Amino acid sequence: MKICRLVIMAILLGIMTIVGCSSSTAPVATSATTPSVKAPSTSAPASTATVTAAPTTSAAVTTTPQKKINMQFALVFGGSDFRTVQAQAWADEITKRTSGRINITLYPGGSLVTGDQAFRAISTGTIELAQAPSTFFESTVTEVQMLGLSGVYPEDKKPDVAQALLPVLDRALAPHHAKFLFTTWEGPYFIQSSKPLNSLADIKGLKLRDTGLWSGKVLSALGASPVTIPLSDTPSALQRGTIDGAVWADTVVYSLKAYEFAKYAINTHGNCLMSCYIINLDVWNKISPEDQKIITQVSKEVGQSSVQIGSDLEKKYITEMVSSGLKIYDLSTNAKDKEALSKAVLAVQTLIEAQSTPLGKELIKALEPFKIQ
After folding, report:
1. In sequence order, which residues have a C-beta less than 8 Å from that of residue 331 and are 6 or more positions away?
2. Is residue 114 exposed (0-12), middle (13-18) or buried (19+ Cβ within 10 Å)?
3. pLDDT at 85 over 60
Protein backbone atom coordinates (compact mmCIF):
# COMPACT_ATOMS: atom_id res chain seq x y z
CA MET A 1 0.00 0.00 0.00
CA LYS A 2 2.86 2.30 0.88
CA ILE A 3 4.34 1.63 -2.51
CA CYS A 4 1.04 2.42 -4.15
CA ARG A 5 0.75 5.66 -2.21
CA LEU A 6 4.26 6.64 -3.24
CA VAL A 7 3.52 5.92 -6.88
CA ILE A 8 0.31 7.96 -6.71
CA MET A 9 2.17 10.87 -5.07
CA ALA A 10 4.85 10.73 -7.74
CA ILE A 11 2.24 10.85 -10.49
CA LEU A 12 0.52 13.85 -8.84
CA LEU A 13 3.84 15.70 -8.54
CA GLY A 14 4.55 15.07 -12.24
CA ILE A 15 1.19 16.48 -13.24
CA MET A 16 1.78 19.63 -11.11
CA THR A 17 5.17 20.08 -12.70
CA ILE A 18 3.70 19.91 -16.20
CA VAL A 19 1.01 22.44 -15.26
CA GLY A 20 3.65 24.76 -13.80
CA CYS A 21 5.72 24.70 -17.01
CA SER A 22 2.69 25.57 -19.07
CA SER A 23 1.95 28.72 -17.10
CA SER A 24 5.59 29.76 -17.14
CA THR A 25 5.63 29.62 -20.94
CA ALA A 26 2.77 32.14 -21.19
CA PRO A 27 4.98 35.20 -20.47
CA VAL A 28 7.48 33.95 -23.01
CA ALA A 29 4.76 33.71 -25.62
CA THR A 30 3.51 37.17 -24.65
CA SER A 31 6.97 38.73 -24.79
CA ALA A 32 7.57 37.09 -28.12
CA THR A 33 4.46 38.70 -29.62
CA THR A 34 5.26 42.16 -28.22
CA PRO A 35 7.14 43.33 -31.35
CA SER A 36 4.14 42.36 -33.44
CA VAL A 37 1.92 44.48 -31.22
CA LYS A 38 4.31 47.47 -31.33
CA ALA A 39 4.73 47.22 -35.05
CA PRO A 40 1.10 48.08 -35.74
CA SER A 41 1.26 50.91 -33.24
CA THR A 42 4.42 52.17 -34.98
CA SER A 43 2.88 51.96 -38.43
CA ALA A 44 -0.42 53.40 -37.27
CA PRO A 45 0.62 57.07 -37.74
CA ALA A 46 1.49 56.33 -41.37
CA SER A 47 -1.90 54.80 -41.83
CA THR A 48 -3.59 57.68 -40.00
CA ALA A 49 -1.69 60.25 -42.12
CA THR A 50 -3.01 58.66 -45.26
CA VAL A 51 -6.56 58.68 -44.00
CA THR A 52 -6.46 62.21 -42.61
CA ALA A 53 -7.64 64.87 -45.00
CA ALA A 54 -4.53 66.52 -46.19
CA PRO A 55 -1.79 63.95 -45.61
CA THR A 56 -3.31 62.32 -48.64
CA THR A 57 -1.15 64.80 -50.59
CA SER A 58 1.05 66.35 -47.98
CA ALA A 59 2.05 62.92 -46.72
CA ALA A 60 3.45 62.19 -50.18
CA VAL A 61 5.22 65.57 -50.25
CA THR A 62 6.67 64.97 -46.78
CA THR A 63 7.96 61.58 -47.84
CA THR A 64 9.83 63.06 -50.81
CA PRO A 65 10.23 66.75 -49.89
CA GLN A 66 11.01 69.20 -52.69
CA LYS A 67 14.28 71.00 -52.18
CA LYS A 68 13.95 74.73 -51.58
CA ILE A 69 14.16 76.68 -54.80
CA ASN A 70 15.59 80.20 -54.79
CA MET A 71 14.88 82.34 -57.84
CA GLN A 72 16.08 85.73 -59.09
CA PHE A 73 13.42 87.92 -60.66
CA ALA A 74 14.63 90.67 -63.03
CA LEU A 75 12.26 93.63 -63.48
CA VAL A 76 12.32 96.58 -65.86
CA PHE A 77 10.57 99.11 -63.63
CA GLY A 78 11.93 100.73 -60.46
CA GLY A 79 11.29 99.59 -56.91
CA SER A 80 8.49 102.06 -56.19
CA ASP A 81 6.64 101.45 -59.48
CA PHE A 82 3.22 99.86 -58.93
CA ARG A 83 4.10 97.00 -61.29
CA THR A 84 7.11 96.15 -59.15
CA VAL A 85 4.93 96.35 -56.03
CA GLN A 86 2.54 93.85 -57.64
CA ALA A 87 5.43 91.58 -58.60
CA GLN A 88 6.60 91.62 -54.98
CA ALA A 89 3.10 90.71 -53.80
CA TRP A 90 3.11 87.84 -56.32
CA ALA A 91 6.47 86.56 -55.05
CA ASP A 92 5.46 86.86 -51.38
CA GLU A 93 2.20 85.00 -51.93
CA ILE A 94 3.98 82.14 -53.69
CA THR A 95 6.47 81.82 -50.83
CA LYS A 96 3.58 81.82 -48.36
CA ARG A 97 1.47 79.22 -50.18
CA THR A 98 4.43 76.91 -50.80
CA SER A 99 5.39 77.13 -47.11
CA GLY A 100 8.77 78.56 -48.02
CA ARG A 101 9.68 75.91 -50.58
CA ILE A 102 10.02 78.65 -53.21
CA ASN A 103 11.73 81.96 -52.49
CA ILE A 104 11.92 84.78 -55.02
CA THR A 105 14.22 87.81 -54.83
CA LEU A 106 13.31 90.85 -56.94
CA TYR A 107 15.86 92.95 -58.84
CA PRO A 108 13.96 96.05 -60.06
CA GLY A 109 15.02 98.80 -62.42
CA GLY A 110 17.19 96.60 -64.64
CA SER A 111 19.65 96.04 -61.78
CA LEU A 112 20.12 92.37 -62.69
CA VAL A 113 19.65 92.50 -66.46
CA THR A 114 18.14 95.21 -68.67
CA GLY A 115 14.80 94.74 -70.40
CA ASP A 116 16.36 94.06 -73.79
CA GLN A 117 18.58 91.34 -72.28
CA ALA A 118 15.92 89.71 -70.10
CA PHE A 119 14.56 87.16 -72.55
CA ARG A 120 18.00 85.90 -73.54
CA ALA A 121 18.96 85.61 -69.87
CA ILE A 122 15.86 83.45 -69.30
CA SER A 123 16.44 81.40 -72.44
CA THR A 124 20.05 80.60 -71.50
CA GLY A 125 19.19 79.89 -67.86
CA THR A 126 21.29 82.79 -66.57
CA ILE A 127 18.34 83.88 -64.42
CA GLU A 128 15.14 82.15 -63.40
CA LEU A 129 12.45 84.84 -63.73
CA ALA A 130 12.08 88.06 -65.70
CA GLN A 131 9.70 90.74 -66.87
CA ALA A 132 10.35 90.96 -70.60
CA PRO A 133 8.48 93.38 -72.89
CA SER A 134 7.41 91.41 -75.96
CA THR A 135 9.02 93.89 -78.36
CA PHE A 136 12.44 92.94 -76.99
CA PHE A 137 12.17 89.32 -78.11
CA GLU A 138 9.68 89.35 -81.00
CA SER A 139 12.54 89.04 -83.50
CA THR A 140 13.53 85.76 -81.81
CA VAL A 141 10.01 84.48 -81.15
CA THR A 142 8.18 85.83 -84.19
CA GLU A 143 4.89 84.29 -83.07
CA VAL A 144 4.49 87.02 -80.42
CA GLN A 145 4.73 90.00 -82.78
CA MET A 146 1.05 90.87 -82.27
CA LEU A 147 1.76 91.46 -78.57
CA GLY A 148 3.82 94.50 -79.56
CA LEU A 149 0.93 96.13 -81.41
CA SER A 150 -0.86 98.78 -79.33
CA GLY A 151 -4.54 99.67 -79.62
CA VAL A 152 -5.78 96.15 -80.43
CA TYR A 153 -7.90 95.51 -77.31
CA PRO A 154 -8.92 97.52 -74.21
CA GLU A 155 -6.09 97.72 -71.68
CA ASP A 156 -8.32 96.47 -68.85
CA LYS A 157 -8.77 93.20 -70.77
CA LYS A 158 -5.02 92.47 -70.83
CA PRO A 159 -5.01 89.79 -68.05
CA ASP A 160 -7.95 88.04 -69.76
CA VAL A 161 -6.10 88.20 -73.07
CA ALA A 162 -3.03 86.65 -71.43
CA GLN A 163 -5.06 83.74 -70.07
CA ALA A 164 -6.63 83.14 -73.49
CA LEU A 165 -3.20 83.19 -75.15
CA LEU A 166 -1.50 80.97 -72.56
CA PRO A 167 -1.65 77.67 -74.52
CA VAL A 168 -0.26 79.36 -77.65
CA LEU A 169 2.42 81.23 -75.73
CA ASP A 170 3.56 78.04 -74.01
CA ARG A 171 4.10 76.37 -77.36
CA ALA A 172 5.81 79.43 -78.82
CA LEU A 173 8.22 79.91 -75.91
CA ALA A 174 9.05 76.26 -75.14
CA PRO A 175 11.71 75.92 -77.92
CA HIS A 176 13.46 78.89 -76.28
CA HIS A 177 13.44 77.27 -72.81
CA ALA A 178 10.90 79.76 -71.48
CA LYS A 179 7.38 79.65 -70.09
CA PHE A 180 4.85 82.49 -69.85
CA LEU A 181 3.34 83.02 -66.39
CA PHE A 182 1.27 86.21 -66.43
CA THR A 183 1.00 89.88 -67.30
CA THR A 184 -0.57 92.84 -65.55
CA TRP A 185 -2.55 95.96 -66.37
CA GLU A 186 -0.10 98.75 -67.23
CA GLY A 187 -2.28 101.66 -68.30
CA PRO A 188 -3.89 102.66 -71.61
CA TYR A 189 -2.00 103.69 -74.71
CA PHE A 190 -1.35 107.47 -74.66
CA ILE A 191 -0.05 109.61 -77.50
CA GLN A 192 1.67 112.52 -75.78
CA SER A 193 3.14 115.67 -77.26
CA SER A 194 4.56 119.07 -76.44
CA LYS A 195 2.28 120.41 -79.20
CA PRO A 196 -1.53 120.70 -79.00
CA LEU A 197 -3.52 117.54 -79.71
CA ASN A 198 -7.20 118.29 -80.23
CA SER A 199 -7.80 115.43 -82.67
CA LEU A 200 -5.99 112.39 -84.05
CA ALA A 201 -5.16 114.39 -87.18
CA ASP A 202 -2.93 116.67 -85.06
CA ILE A 203 -0.21 114.01 -84.83
CA LYS A 204 0.54 114.34 -88.56
CA GLY A 205 4.13 115.44 -89.10
CA LEU A 206 5.09 115.04 -85.43
CA LYS A 207 8.22 113.13 -84.44
CA LEU A 208 6.92 110.62 -81.92
CA ARG A 209 8.89 108.04 -79.96
CA ASP A 210 7.36 104.60 -80.64
CA THR A 211 7.29 101.46 -78.49
CA GLY A 212 8.61 99.23 -81.25
CA LEU A 213 8.38 98.32 -84.92
CA TRP A 214 4.62 97.81 -85.07
CA SER A 215 3.54 100.85 -83.09
CA GLY A 216 5.86 102.82 -85.38
CA LYS A 217 3.99 101.53 -88.42
CA VAL A 218 0.68 102.61 -86.87
CA LEU A 219 2.10 106.10 -86.33
CA SER A 220 3.33 106.19 -89.93
CA ALA A 221 -0.12 105.18 -91.18
CA LEU A 222 -1.55 108.13 -89.24
CA GLY A 223 0.94 110.58 -90.75
CA ALA A 224 3.42 110.88 -87.85
CA SER A 225 7.17 110.25 -88.00
CA PRO A 226 8.12 107.41 -85.63
CA VAL A 227 11.42 107.60 -83.75
CA THR A 228 12.99 104.68 -81.86
CA ILE A 229 14.91 105.66 -78.72
CA PRO A 230 15.25 104.02 -75.29
CA LEU A 231 12.56 104.82 -72.75
CA SER A 232 15.14 106.26 -70.35
CA ASP A 233 16.27 108.81 -72.97
CA THR A 234 12.76 109.94 -73.92
CA PRO A 235 12.14 112.62 -71.24
CA SER A 236 15.38 114.46 -72.06
CA ALA A 237 14.69 114.14 -75.81
CA LEU A 238 11.28 115.73 -75.24
CA GLN A 239 12.78 118.54 -73.18
CA ARG A 240 15.45 119.25 -75.79
CA GLY A 241 12.90 119.17 -78.61
CA THR A 242 14.66 116.28 -80.37
CA ILE A 243 11.23 114.66 -80.54
CA ASP A 244 7.74 116.17 -80.34
CA GLY A 245 6.19 113.45 -78.26
CA ALA A 246 5.92 109.77 -77.41
CA VAL A 247 3.63 106.77 -77.35
CA TRP A 248 3.47 105.05 -73.97
CA ALA A 249 1.14 104.13 -71.10
CA ASP A 250 -0.35 106.94 -69.06
CA THR A 251 1.26 105.37 -65.98
CA VAL A 252 4.67 105.92 -67.60
CA VAL A 253 3.74 109.54 -68.31
CA TYR A 254 3.08 109.89 -64.59
CA SER A 255 6.13 108.00 -63.29
CA LEU A 256 8.52 109.92 -65.57
CA LYS A 257 6.71 113.21 -64.87
CA ALA A 258 6.58 113.77 -68.62
CA TYR A 259 3.41 115.83 -68.13
CA GLU A 260 5.59 118.64 -66.77
CA PHE A 261 7.12 119.37 -70.18
CA ALA A 262 4.70 117.78 -72.69
CA LYS A 263 1.28 119.19 -71.89
CA TYR A 264 -0.94 117.43 -74.46
CA ALA A 265 -2.10 113.83 -74.76
CA ILE A 266 -4.60 111.57 -76.52
CA ASN A 267 -6.09 108.75 -74.47
CA THR A 268 -6.81 105.91 -76.90
CA HIS A 269 -8.06 103.51 -74.16
CA GLY A 270 -6.29 100.72 -76.05
CA ASN A 271 -3.61 98.36 -74.85
CA CYS A 272 0.08 99.14 -74.73
CA LEU A 273 2.57 96.41 -75.60
CA MET A 274 2.53 93.38 -73.31
CA SER A 275 5.15 92.87 -70.63
CA CYS A 276 5.58 89.11 -70.28
CA TYR A 277 6.45 87.66 -66.88
CA ILE A 278 8.35 84.50 -67.78
CA ILE A 279 10.29 81.67 -66.14
CA ASN A 280 13.09 79.47 -67.44
CA LEU A 281 11.45 76.22 -68.57
CA ASP A 282 14.11 73.95 -67.02
CA VAL A 283 13.56 75.66 -63.67
CA TRP A 284 9.79 75.28 -64.08
CA ASN A 285 10.14 71.55 -64.73
CA LYS A 286 12.09 71.12 -61.48
CA ILE A 287 9.18 72.52 -59.48
CA SER A 288 6.75 69.95 -58.10
CA PRO A 289 3.30 69.69 -59.76
CA GLU A 290 1.75 70.89 -56.51
CA ASP A 291 3.85 74.07 -56.46
CA GLN A 292 3.42 74.62 -60.21
CA LYS A 293 -0.31 74.67 -59.55
CA ILE A 294 0.16 77.25 -56.79
CA ILE A 295 2.28 79.50 -59.03
CA THR A 296 -0.26 79.25 -61.85
CA GLN A 297 -3.12 80.16 -59.53
CA VAL A 298 -1.30 83.09 -57.89
CA SER A 299 -0.26 84.37 -61.34
CA LYS A 300 -3.87 84.39 -62.49
CA GLU A 301 -5.03 86.14 -59.31
CA VAL A 302 -2.37 88.85 -59.49
CA GLY A 303 -3.09 89.49 -63.17
CA GLN A 304 -6.81 89.92 -62.51
CA SER A 305 -6.40 92.06 -59.38
CA SER A 306 -3.98 94.35 -61.23
CA VAL A 307 -6.89 95.74 -63.28
CA GLN A 308 -8.68 97.15 -60.25
CA ILE A 309 -5.49 98.23 -58.49
CA GLY A 310 -4.21 99.90 -61.67
CA SER A 311 -7.51 101.56 -62.49
CA ASP A 312 -7.72 103.08 -59.02
CA LEU A 313 -4.16 104.37 -59.31
CA GLU A 314 -4.86 105.71 -62.78
CA LYS A 315 -7.68 107.93 -61.49
CA LYS A 316 -5.25 109.40 -58.97
CA TYR A 317 -2.56 109.86 -61.62
CA ILE A 318 -4.91 111.50 -64.12
CA THR A 319 -6.22 113.91 -61.47
CA GLU A 320 -2.66 114.95 -60.53
CA MET A 321 -1.52 115.31 -64.15
CA VAL A 322 -4.55 117.34 -65.19
CA SER A 323 -4.15 119.60 -62.17
CA SER A 324 -0.53 120.13 -63.29
CA GLY A 325 -1.71 121.34 -66.69
CA LEU A 326 -1.90 118.20 -68.86
CA LYS A 327 -4.71 118.45 -71.43
CA ILE A 328 -6.13 115.05 -72.41
CA TYR A 329 -8.18 114.48 -75.54
CA ASP A 330 -10.41 111.41 -75.11
CA LEU A 331 -10.44 109.50 -78.40
CA SER A 332 -13.61 107.60 -77.45
CA THR A 333 -15.61 110.83 -77.73
CA ASN A 334 -14.95 111.08 -81.47
CA ALA A 335 -16.23 108.18 -83.59
CA LYS A 336 -14.31 109.35 -86.65
CA ASP A 337 -10.96 109.43 -84.83
CA LYS A 338 -11.67 106.12 -83.13
CA GLU A 339 -12.37 104.53 -86.50
CA ALA A 340 -9.22 106.06 -88.03
CA LEU A 341 -7.02 104.56 -85.31
CA SER A 342 -8.73 101.15 -85.58
CA LYS A 343 -8.21 101.19 -89.35
CA ALA A 344 -4.48 101.94 -88.94
CA VAL A 345 -4.10 99.19 -86.29
CA LEU A 346 -5.93 96.68 -88.51
CA ALA A 347 -3.69 97.52 -91.47
CA VAL A 348 -0.60 96.74 -89.38
CA GLN A 349 -2.20 93.55 -88.04
CA THR A 350 -2.66 92.45 -91.65
CA LEU A 351 1.07 92.99 -92.23
CA ILE A 352 1.94 90.90 -89.18
CA GLU A 353 -0.46 88.13 -90.15
CA ALA A 354 0.95 87.95 -93.69
CA GLN A 355 4.39 87.02 -92.37
CA SER A 356 3.26 84.95 -89.39
CA THR A 357 3.88 81.27 -88.80
CA PRO A 358 0.82 79.01 -88.30
CA LEU A 359 1.29 79.40 -84.54
CA GLY A 360 1.50 83.18 -84.91
CA LYS A 361 -1.77 83.14 -86.83
CA GLU A 362 -3.29 81.03 -84.09
CA LEU A 363 -2.33 83.72 -81.58
CA ILE A 364 -3.91 86.43 -83.75
CA LYS A 365 -7.11 84.39 -83.98
CA ALA A 366 -7.19 83.97 -80.17
CA LEU A 367 -7.11 87.78 -79.85
CA GLU A 368 -10.22 88.31 -81.99
CA PRO A 369 -12.84 88.15 -79.18
CA PHE A 370 -11.06 90.96 -77.31
CA LYS A 371 -10.53 93.45 -80.13
CA ILE A 372 -11.81 97.01 -79.84
CA GLN A 373 -14.94 97.33 -81.95
Report:
1. 200, 266, 267, 268, 269, 337, 338, 341
2. middle
3. yes
Among 281, 295, 287, which residue's Cα sits nearest to residue 170? 281
The per-residue pLDDT for 315 is 94
Decide if 310 contacts 82 (C-beta within 8 A).
yes
Give how far Cα 100 sits from Cα of 62, 196, 203, Å.
14, 53, 52
CATH H superfamily, domain 189-272+312-358 = Bacterial extracellular solute-binding protein, family 7 (3.40.190.170)
What does the alpha-carbon distance between residue 173 and residue 181 come to, in Å, rounded to a whole number? Answer: 11
Find out whether 356 and 154 touch, Cβ atoms under 8 Å: no
Q: How far apart are CA 319 and CA 48, in angstroms?
A: 60
Fold: same for 66-184+274-306 and 189-272+312-358? yes
Domain 66-184+274-306 in CATH: superfamily?
Bacterial extracellular solute-binding protein, family 7 (3.40.190.170)
Report CA 337 to chain centroid distance, whole Å. 34
| pLDDT tens, position by position, 120-145 | 999 999 999 999 999 999 999 999 99
